[in-house]
Amino acid sequence: MDENEISNRILGIAFKVHSALGPGLLESAYKECLYYLMLKEGLAVEKEKPMPLVFEDVKLDCGYRIDLLVENKVVVELKSVEVLNDVHLAQTLTYLKLGNFKLGLLINFNVTSLKLGIKRVVNGM
């Protein structure tokens, strides 16, 4: 499966979760539901994956954690905020660069229509 196919499956699951729960919950609630459904649908997914920073050929643990890494290809960064800011996009792009991933999905669940809360973030794809 390539990144686009994976992202389509992720978004289908995200819409299912948002439709069932709506906006207003903590980010962690959406993360657990997405994680559960992704596993149930047979996707390989890692939750809270540590993302070390490599500086002068040394891996440093700076506390960076990817919310969900799907099929070791697509980074999913979740939010439940009033509005997505540039810093949220920058955070997602940083994870893509640190892990050498091509595609990330920044998803804000605190919206009435989930399609308004989805940002596709690309790193040289």
**What is the count of β-strands?**
7
Cα-to-Cα separation, first versus last residue: 15 Å
Task: Please report the number of helical segments.
Answer: 3
Number of domains: 1
Helix/strand class: alpha+beta
Give the overall pLDDT as a whole number.
Answer: 95
Largest sheet: number of strands, sense, barrel closure: 5 strands, mixed
Silhouette: globular
What percent of residues adopt helix (DSSP H or I)?
A: 25-40%
Describe this protein's structure.
- There is one protein chain.
- This protein has 125 residues and is of the alpha+beta class.
- The chain has one domain (3-122).
- The protein is 38% helix and 28% strand.
- The chain has three helices and seven strands, in the order H-H-E-E-E-E-E-H-E-E.
- The protein has helices spanning 3-21, 27-40, 86-99, and strands spanning 45-50, 53-55, 58-60, 65-70, 74-79, 103-108, 118-122.
- The strands form two sheets. It has a five-stranded mixed sheet. The protein has a two-stranded antiparallel ribbon with strand order 2-3.
- Strand 4 (65-70) and strand 5 form a beta hairpin.
- Helix 1 crosses helix 2 (27-40).
- The radius of gyration is 14 Å and the shape is globular.
- The two termini are 15 Å apart.
- The model has no long low-confidence stretch (mean pLDDT 95).
Question: How would you describe this structure in keywords?
Answer:
125 residues; alpha+beta; two-stranded antiparallel sheet; 3 helices; 7 strands; globular
Topology (SSEs and partners):
Elements: H1 3-21, H2 27-40, E1 45-50, E2 53-55, E3 58-60, E4 65-70, E5 74-79, H3 86-99, E6 103-108, E7 118-122
Parallel strand pairs: 5-6
Antiparallel strand pairs: 1-4, 2-3, 4-5, 6-7
